[in-house]
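ok trying again, last paste got cut off:
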Amino acid sequence: MASWNDDRLELALRASKEGVWDWDLESGSIYYSRRALRFFGFRREEAPNIFEEREQYMDDESAAAVEEALNRVCREGEDLFAVESRVKTRDQQWKWFRVRGTPVRDNLGKVVRLVGSLIDISKRMAAEAALGEERALIQTLLDGIPMNVYFKDTDSRFVMANRSTALKMGLSSTEDLLGKTDSDFFSSEHAEHARSLEKEIMKTGLGKTDVTEQEKWEDRDDTWVKTTKRIWKGPNGDIKGTFGVTSDISDLMRARAEQESVAAELHATNLKIEEERQRLRLVIDGVPMNVYFKNLDHQFVIVNQTMAQWVGCQNPEDLYEKSDQDFYSEEHWKDAERVEKKIMQTGKPVVELVEKETWRGKEDTWVMTSKYPWRDSEGVVVGTFGVSSDVSDLVLAHREMEEQATKLNQQNLEMADELALAREVHMALLPEVIPQFSSEGKTLSFEKLYRPAPDLTGDFYEVIPLGSDRAGFLICDVAGQGVRSALIVSMLRGLIEQGLELASSPGKFLTGLNDGLLHLFEKSDLEIVATAVYGVVDLARDEIHLSVAGHPNPVAVFEDGVRQLVPPEEANQGPLGKEANVTYGCVSAPLKGLRRMFCFSEGLRLAENSLGETYGISRIIGIVERGGPMRNVLERLQTSVSDFTSMEENDPSSLCLLSWELDQ
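nice, full thing came through this time. structure:
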C-alpha cells in the first residue's frame, strides 16, 4: 500500500470518477483513495472497512451479494470480484456503488488481498427505480381497464399486455404471454388474418377502428370482439409494431344468434300451422334449399322449385302424388321411408343428417337433411316435411382431404424418422474426446460444449491433431437449419478430410474449403454459405496462426485482460461458399501472454430476449472475465444465455462452444 501515490492516483482516476480501495484480508486493514472517502463522507482515520462491517453499513441484500462474490473469488477460484451494493454513508444517507476488484493470491492460491475501484451509481439506480415505478403505474392502469390492451412488435409478437389479455388467452400472467403470437392460441386461419391486417397497418400507417372480428380458437368455441388497432411508433418515429384494444361482444353475438334461432323456429311453426297452400308456396319457393312435404303414404304434396329441379322436373306440380321410388334406387327410397315412418310414429325430428343419395341413371349425391313431423292445425301428424341442401362437393373434398392427410401423415412419419437418424449421425461425427498436446513443459487442453437444436443444425466443431505438439481447431456455422444445412455440414466434413494436407496453414485450409464448396454447389445446384474460424496452435514454435471466414472473432484471455480478437483484413475474409477465387489469408502471433481462447457459433452472440435485445459480445466477455475452470466458464455461458432468452430445455436454437487453454 505504500507504493500508492494518492495524488497521482487521483489524477489517473479523475476522468473515470472512480475511487480506489485496497483490502488486506490477512490484517483486515483497508485503504481508500480520497475520492472513495468523499463518496462515503468519512475522514481517513475514521473510515470503516465496509466489506468486513457490511452488516452495519449495507442493506441485507447488498451484504448477501458481497458474501456471495467473496465466496466465488476465495473458494471457487474466480478472478473478478463484482457487486452492486447499497451503502450507508457517514451522514446516514444511502448510496449505490458499482464495485469491482481483482484478487491477489499467495503461492498456495489463497486470496490475501483484494484491490479494486468503486463508482457512485445512485443516480442510475434512482432512475431505474423511477422507471420501474412508472411501468408499474402503467401496468396497474392497464390491468384496471375492463378491456384487452396489448402491444405487438413488427413480427406480431406480444411485448406488453394487460392482465385481461393474458386471462383471455388462458394464461395466469402477462409474462407468460410475452414473445408469443396469435398462432399460439387461435386457429391458423384467424392468426394469418390478424397478421395480414397488422402488416397492412404498419405499411400504410392507417389503423382500424371498431372492427367486429370473429375469433376462431384451436381448442374452444369462437368468440367475437370489437377491435381497434393502430400503428405503434417509437420516440424517433420508427415503427415498433402495432397496439390494439378489444372489447368482448360474444354474449351480444350469441344473443343475436339465439334471437335468429327463435325467429326461425317461430317461422317454421307458422309454416306448419298455415293451411293455405298458396301462401306456403310463396314462402318455400324463396328458400334456396330443397323443401318438400309428404303425406302419410310418403307421396310429395308440396315442393318448391329448387326441389323439382333437383330430381329433374321442370315444375313442382310434376312431383305431386309421386314418391322417392320414382327417382332414387331401391336401397335409398326404402331407407328414406323407414326414417319418415319413425318420425311420424315418435314425433321426433331428424336434424342435419348427412346422407348419400343413390339415383336411377345418374351419379350419387350427398345432402344435409332435416326432417320433421308435419302436423295440421289441430296438432295431428299428417305426414313429414323436410329441408335439404347439396353438400356433395364438401363430402368429396372431405374424403379427398382425409386420404391426403393419411398420405401426408405417413410421409411425415417417414421424414421424422429420417431426420432423427440424420441428427444422430451428425452428433456421432462430433469429436467426443479431445486429446491434450504438449511440448517442453507446455500443455494445450481443449473444452467443448455443444447443445444441438431439436431440428438438424449447421453448427459443428473439429480439433485436428497435427502432431503431439500442434493442433488445428475449427468452429463452423452453416446458415439456416434443416436438411439443407445438414447436407452442407456433410459436404464440409468430406472436404476437411480431403484437405488435411493443408491443415497446417489456416489460410490455405479455408481457401481449399471455399473452392471445394463452390465446386460441389455447381454440381448440386445448392446455394448456401458457411462461416468459420480455423486456427493452428504450434507449441514447439510458441506460435498461433488464425484465419476467419465471416465468423464472429474469438474472445481471448491475455495476461493483461480479456478482449475480442480483431484479425487484420487479409486474415478476415467473407463466408465460405459465396464467392469464387477468394484467397484466405492468415495472421500469426507468438503465444506469449495468451492464456485462453473461446470460439462460439453466431447463435450465442445473436440470441434475443423478449424485448428484441441481442446477447452480444460484451456479455460474453463479462462471463469469461470471471475466470475459473474452462468447463465452468462454458457452462456459465450456456446458463447465462438461457436466462437471457428465458429459454431452457425447449430452446429451439443450437449452441456450439470450443475453447482451449495453454498451461506453461
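cool. The longest strand covers residues 94-105. The chain is about 35% helix and 30% strand.
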